[in-house]
């Protein structure tokens, strides 16, 4: 298990958990600059906060997370917008709970308390 942060403009940061060794290696390759194509994060949101990301009352299901280069517009949203409209997520807004912020980029590995 490892924790990573992705950023969005303007200067927002979201922490997420990975449990799959291949995905952990992929995230580390993004940070090191080895991976240059699939650098954006996609996953299914769960409407429950996590202690490692206290600013938000939702998290990404670690089993659903992957990385992408291009994605459809229907899953793109800013993290603060998701928080403000969380009650609508999973319906017409972020169908199926899939979230793929287009400007997300994994920036660092996080040590949690």
Task: Summarize this structure as a short list of keywords or feature phrases.
single chain, 113 residues, alpha+beta, four-stranded antiparallel β-sheet, three-stranded antiparallel β-sheet, 2 helices, 9 strands, globular, Calmodulin
User: What percentage of amino acids are in beta strands?
Assistant: 25-35%
Helix content: 10-25%
- Total helical elements: 2
Mean pLDDT: 93
N-C termini distance: 14 Å
Number of domains: 1
Protein name: Calmodulin
InterPro entries: BP74_N, cAMP-inducible_BP74-like
Provide a descriptive summary of the structure in words.
It comes from Protofrankia coriariae. InterPro entries: BP74_N, cAMP-inducible_BP74-like. This is Calmodulin. By secondary structure, the protein is α+β, with helices and mostly antiparallel strands. It has one domain (2-110). It contains 2 helices and 9 strands. Strands 3, 4, 5 and 8 form a 4-stranded antiparallel beta sheet that branches. It has a 3-stranded antiparallel beta sheet with strand order 2-1-9, with helices on one face. It has a two-stranded parallel sheet with strand order 6-7. The model has no long low-confidence stretch (mean pLDDT 93).
Write the layout of secondary structure elements.
Blueprint: E1 2-8, E2 12-18, H1 21-32, E3 40-46, E4 59-60, E5 66-68, H2 79-84, E6 89-90, E7 93-95, E8 98-99, E9 105-110
Parallel strand pairs: 6-7
Antiparallel strand pairs: 1-2, 1-9, 3-4, 3-5, 3-8
Précis, in short:
By secondary structure, the chain is an alpha+beta fold. The protein is built from two helices and nine strands. It has one domain.
